[in-house]
Design goal:
Chain lengths: 344, 344, 344, 344
């Protein structure tokens, strides 16, 4: 029997992707949609300007949108997926947790809090147990789990495959798609025939979230990974798919072919949205490319390529679909992990 | 009185830019145009599919194109600007030098040869004296000077401004415009809504040319700079302007504001095509951007921005117009330097 | 049991789409791949630079490519799909027909020949019987059927839905995607931040093919439709999907809502690749759009929208996926029609 | 001595272009800048996010922005250039006229009013005398002149050159650049790899403004031209430059070469911003193109090409820079006409 779920912030770009992924999902049934006060009371079809490249699901089109408020959401909802703007998420997500809802959130607020698990299921599923600490400390009946930022998700699985070599220094340069900023985030006049070498707050997310994700959780406390990461972030004129250039320096010598093998063999999970393999490693030196490779594994795979020795260690490129693996799909996958682990 | 010059490979993308720059240039007068055998005998208007965004100059349109052969070029030409494909350049440029022509070349062949000066006038004008060694060794009446690759020119001036801090390790990620590959180089199906993380041979050029440019010439021998450079190159959907993310580690501590000041005060030259300032440093964190900033200093300035501490040293972005400062304009500027130094 | 088929010109852009569509097709089994002499003898993986956004099918990757010559193709092939360049198609397609092969061709050569059926199955399936005339006249054991040009296919089904109103004058302006010109057809320098108001020979195809498609076949002779069409063709920076602005003047008054209803109710066929409905009519005034709507009906539907009175009659927009419905899919669909009608 | 002028709505995209054009203009001196209440009191540098591809003029950067209110603008201003959003323009432009200011406005409000001259100086300069009627009727000390919409300006000069043949029916399909919608008007997610066949209200502007512009003014009343125009408008991924496909049916036979000659010889004016020739007619069938031809005549020329017989009359393409000739430059040119005719 499907779990009844709601989507917080259902009309935005990530909200639409969540609906696209949840509608056909056998384990979940969309039973609540929230948006801003201005949209409350409208049907979803009226409230959302649907822009995903598949038709709006019939089951959702005529649902009534409610305000983003625990009192407005039906009680028989078991899980919430949140794609709220972070300022709003910071305000209302705790209210939902306090009201007893389990929230799988894509919003950036709270990601670095000590008692909030920041999880990529194939990378650090054990961090989910931070929820015990969270419930102790916050007294919530519900729970809150976060997925990382889209640009973080893209490169962390490749690093996870290399941890046994002793990660020390990482440089990462990102070429990010416009959908990462939401529908109105990047004006066409800003980006056609152009690139913008700055995305507010993004570099810090890559540098800090990656260390939390690769950290060790001893059942009580989470120790962040000791590697250091230097990030430089760019917006480019692509619709979907973040491409990243990565240089890694490790304690032990790391030949390119050993790295490729470690990535290829890095295990995936048996969750419904987990792709197999998790990391697709290309031989062709000019791959991965956003338009060609972002839909690998239904948008949930990580693509890597161009592995080679650099003057200082290893160098490679990686890619993930930023609104699927990097946002909506990440939240859905965390929902599947919550379900698998009995939190629902 | 203007120096009579010729353009080798006049019909290509860089050849067209050379003509656009040389036609109004007070020191040079275009007196010869060469192209492939198939174009020889045609007027330039017939031979070239003119695609630069200013009309084809009248003085050039009706000139007859000759083959790229010393015998076909008039004797009273004093200097040649070469934008030949490198395989052809390797074949015929030495013939022109042997026949007594002074060649300022943008072609990549021979750039790393010990006795060929690779010059950015504002950075290493003294390397021009390698021409004495060259003439001794090769017995040429003419001479050959090269400018570096477009992606190398973009970041080397910013490094030159920082040499006193002791350059050690440099990481550079490039976001390169399609014009860098010539008119037919990048298909639209390859690059719209996409990025390609590979440009054949480009990373090596950044890594080796930069060390030669920042090397020391003692009058007899050139010692390459001891820094190490790791490059990762990407093609993105921009027309003109290469953007680069740079991380620098130096012997001495290098605060971002000191770096900005060093770049701003890095001296330009009194040559006609040298911009003043050479390096334009932006305060705005989201600059430089290709479409907005590639025409600074008539396309001859270097733009820098986003200077900040990284976990490992200094981090910043830089930009240059790849077919002006990075190719045709670089060759013209070397021509001006040759003229200034009495080689013509 | 699946029909064994071959693809002529298998390495090009349309050839790759053909393979993508034929590989999972239950009625067809790919058993031969041809390309230029230079590719003959290589595996398909070696010969083709695969650029479609799904992985190269395993069953095809290791097949050996042959020359495009009846002697090189196995005898037990029942049907050939041709995406040859038209100059080559004109040379070799008749040889295949003479050798007994049934050819469903996307190449433009011969499309306007009196005895070659030019067919969109949902529009003029009865024209297929021209094959009787063809065999009589040419003495072929095989047969040749053509699908129209991609830009023609986009608007003809919408006109077909309106024929009962008496088509008189049609103006059509096209906004065509770069994939219509093949992989190397449109350089990125030509089209980024640009549009090109000219596609060689395209306007004539729209004007003449449409009249043949909507003509009447009396079992012996085909009379072209008496309407007149004026076309203006533009290339724009989209990857896939041709968008067209259409104005129609009819004998009888044609209100926009009657036109919408006629399009919505225009019958599809019961062939495997025929979408249902054939024509998707949008209410939203800003649809159809290439990126959002080109995959309707797995890329085989026609999308229409913006139906309104113009000062002179009816005005609307239509869209189709140019390499699926407009090329590879059109040929596959003609193959299904040939099979259904016993020509295989 | 330069006329002191102000810019209403100075921080928007057209406002920035106005400043770029007015700053070096010898006849005008920028002496006032207005924007929304939120910007009032700030320096222009603080208030505007400057995005034009030349640096912000020094003379303007430190000027203080005022509210858009006659009381806030200095009295010694002689002329105002308005690029206000039309809803705001409708509110406040009449107040400025009543307060005695002469306003050259790009805003769409009031363009079709009987007593407001809608002027392209090279096309209908005599319509300026409507200002006498305007002052009589409205009792204004000031005056209001409008320039047409950017898409209208693009094709009307070419029609003006053909009026002697008796214009009857015109079809026009537009491929419009994103800058026409202002900086935030078109999201990148909306337009990359896409086209949108709808621009709200645009078709009506082309159909009605063109008839007013080509109408006859007898000194008292303006009779609109009797031709009929059917327009279809599309947004495409270009930054600047509207391209239009035009079909014209005329009373008298109009061969393509006669049309080309009429366009080439159509007279320009002796105003500072009027280009000579006004209409640049290309022989090459694939021109004009937005990126290559939008800067002809410093962005003030009209480019035409592809002239040929269509099945119904004449067919051609035309192009103009939408934010220069189509907006800011149009207003400046009207300002020059006002000055020339003694209205200042």
């Amino acid at each position: 029997m499907a779990v009844r779920v709601g989507v917080l912030g259902a009309t935005g770009a990530v909200g639409q992707r969540l609906i696209q992924l949840l509608d056909p999902h056998p384990d979940f049934e969309i039973a609540a949609l929230t948006a801003s006060e201005a949209s409350a009371g409208k049907t979803y079809r009226q409230a959302a300007k649907w822009r995903v490249d598949s038709p709006i699901p019939d089951a959702v089109a005529d649902m009534t949108v409610t305000a983003t408020d625990p009192d407005a959401v039906p009680d028989d909802i078991d899980m919430l997926f949140s794609s709220l703007p972070s300022s709003i998420g910071a305000d209302v997500e705790p209210d939902f947790c306090e009201a007893g809802y389990v929230v799988s959130s894509n919003s950036s607020n709270g990601r670095m809090d000590d008692d909030i698990p920041l999880v990529i299921p194939e990378v650090n599923p054990d961090h989910l147990d931070l929820l015990e600490v969270q419930r102790d400390e916050r007294g919530w009946d519900g729970a809150m789990v976060k997925n990382p930022n889209c640009s973080t998700i893209t490169f962390v699985p490749t690093l996870a495959a290399l941890t046994e070599y002793g990660l020390e220094k990482v440089h990462v340069s990102t070429l990010q798609a416009v959908s990462g900023a939401g529908y109105a985030g990047v004006s066409s006049m800003e980006i056609i025939d152009n690139a913008v070498p700055h995305i507010g707050g993004e570099e810090d997310k890559l540098e800090t979230e990656s260390r939390k994700l690769l950290g060790e959780f001893d059942g009580a406390e989470l120790t962040h990974n000791g590697m250091h990461v230097a990030a430089s972030c760019n917006r480019i004129p692509t619709i979907d798919g973040h491409l990243e250039n990565v240089w890694v320096e490790t304690e032990e010598d790391l030949p390119a072919d050993a790295a490729a093998e470690a990535m290829r063999e890095y295990p995936s999970l048996d969750l419904r949205s987990s792709p197999d393999p998790l990391i697709h490693v290309f031989e062709e030196p000019d791959r991965p490319q956003p338009r060609l490779d972002r839909t690998l594994g239904d948008g949930m795979a990580i693509a890597a390529g161009g592995l080679q020795k650099s003057p200082f260690g290893l160098q490679y490129n990686c890619l993930a679909h930023n609104t699927v693996r990097g946002a909506a799909g990440a939240s859905v996958l965390n929902g599947e992990l919550l379900l698998e682990n009995g939190y629902i």
